[in-house]
Amino acid sequence: MKKISIVLLLLVLLAIPTNGAFAQEVSHENDVTQEEINRRLEVVFDYLDEHAKNADFNGQSSLIYNIPVGEGVIVTAEIANQKDSDPRARTIGSSSYSITANTTYNYKLTLTSVISSGDITVYTVNYTTGNSTDFGNGVYKLTVNSVSLTGTPSGFYSVGDTYTTIGSNNNIIVTTGGYIKYTHPILSNKTILIVPVDMGSLAGGLLKVNYTYEVE
Q1: Number of domains present in the structure of the chain
Q2: What is the pLDDT of residues 33-74, one digit of tens each?
Q3: What average pLDDT does this structure show over 143-157?
Q4: Is residue 123 part of a domain?
Q5: Predicted structure pTM score
Q6: Residue 36, pLDDT score
Q7: How many CB atoms neighbour CB 5 within 10 A?
Q8: What is the pLDDT of residue 59?
Q9: Torsional class of 82: left (φ above 0), alpha (ψ -120 to 50), beta (otherwise)
């Protein structure tokens, strides 16, 4: 009986640091409020709107930005605009990048660690350019075929609801957006809002993407 009591006592003592660490980790995750997530996203989209428009991609398939959004907190944003059938195509934002008529592309924005839990959110717009004769000068109608949002949470969250929207479709400027919700039965739900992302066809066969962040 004495041996059993000693074993049980040891198990209890060994469990205390583990439970303490778990509670500390949960507390750390829960420290990030929805307001803070909104603020981080605003910083990210402001940064992209300023830096991603005229960046030189040097033939890379995507461009990655590590964006400081707070003390010791960095959100990684990767942008790419590739032909649906060519994963090596160059990305948007380059002054020398061009889109061609009657071609389907995938615009993709990947955001990592917005919630600071290793989350990866991928926003994809699949669209097709129109005929070269519609407007001339390399300006095409843009028809958005689909908008998707996927998430890869780690830690305590799972993917909940997703929602996407398309406005002014089949036009030279198309607005897209959406949100994804990360959920947990104990911790507060967190929502990543991506809206609006305006895609516009410019003369010379150029695609321009404007990033804006709005919270209702």
Answers
A1: 1
A2: 999 999 999 999 999 988 886 666 666 778 899 999 998 899
A3: 91
A4: yes
A5: 0.80
A6: 95
A7: 9
A8: 64
A9: beta
Residue 9 lies inside a defined structural domain of this protein: no
Handedness of CA 127, 130, 132, 137 (dihedral sign): negative
Q: Which domain holds residue 203?
A: 32-211
Residue length, the chain? 216
> What does the pLDDT read at residue 200?
92
Sheet of 73-83: strand order equals 63-70, 73-83, 104-112, 120-129, 142-152
Phi-psi region of 90 (alpha: psi -120 to 50; beta: other; left: phi over 0): beta
Phi-psi region of 48 (alpha: psi -120 to 50; beta: other; left: phi over 0): alpha
Q: Report how far residue 186's alpha carbon sits from residue 14's, in angstroms, rounded to the nearest whole number.
A: 25
- Pairing type for strands 120-129 and 142-152 reads antiparallel
Classify residue 96: in a domain, yes or no.
Answer: yes
Is 98 inside a domain boundary?
Answer: yes
